[in-house]
Amino acid sequence: RSCYKLTSFAFASDGCFTSSQQDPFLADDWTLCVHSQGWIYFYNPSLKVVTDQDIRRPEVLEMTENSYSQYPLSELSDGMEVHLHVQSRISLRKPESGNGISSFNLTINHNHCTASYDFDEVQDNNSTLLGPKRLNRCRRLYWNYLWNHPAHVPTPSRAIEDASDALTWFYTDNLISGTRSTVPFSKSECEELSRMVRELALSCNEKSIAKTVFLAWFLREVCSYRDAENWGQLTQRESQADRKQKLTPNQPSHHPPPIILAIINFIVNVLFFGIPHTYRAHVKITSEYRGRLSSVQKTWQDYIERLVREYSHFLLIVNSLVCYLGKVLTSFGSRLCSSREFITRFDLQN
């Protein structure tokens, strides 16, 4: 899938390129893979090795070979591969300044959609024995890896099913909990994402690299949410108590002395007619976090619109009052001038 060779015209995808494709710097058996966003990584199907380092440079290729030579590649079964995180203690642009190398490897099992830095943890016999918490962590590592390296493997068969199941629950929780829902997507976002997942399930998207990227991103977010919610660890009562505690706002621990508080209340209530208290109450309610940042943002937008509307009404009232007072003062001034003129004429006649 996604591998395109000059000798094969039947496959239309151009996500991967081999050494036979006019790239003299790419070593044999290595494939250059292109992410949907444009960056590249390298894959060796015979060794089952993936790396982000630019192995077209001889010194980097040598460093990579030294790294995977210490890894038990022979123990990788079908559907497994290793992602080499090779780091040089010196800048790769200046290899002559030293030769210190450090590496740590992520083992990937595409059969079970798991990944771990512990090789034994993701072997076929052990993947089914993981507990809920550890399985979710391994799944998150896997989807994060696939989000960054989608071009050389097909989309896992369970991705559509898992995404649809997660969206169904997110939509249900939005209906049940409303604004207090803690799921990462709103009701409207769930509807849009569900439509996208249904379209990706069509046969025309079977070989789409962007499809793999999208599903990997979404399922990574699902795993992150489940990790934050202690998925598979708490009983129903404990889970409800934990959620209630998260939604309860923290009370300030520091209070000013009673004398200072009395002076502040006098200034606020007498000199400013209690307006700061009203403003503070509105800001406190608007800033309350109820499980989703989008809800806080919408509440703030509504509050800002309300302030603008009330300010516009205030300006309209002030303008009307100013015009009215202007007319009253003008009328009073004209009457005063008429009175003074009458008094002046009366004095002259006398």
UniProtKB/TrEMBL annotation:
This is WW domain-containing protein. It comes from Galerina marginata (strain CBS 339.88).
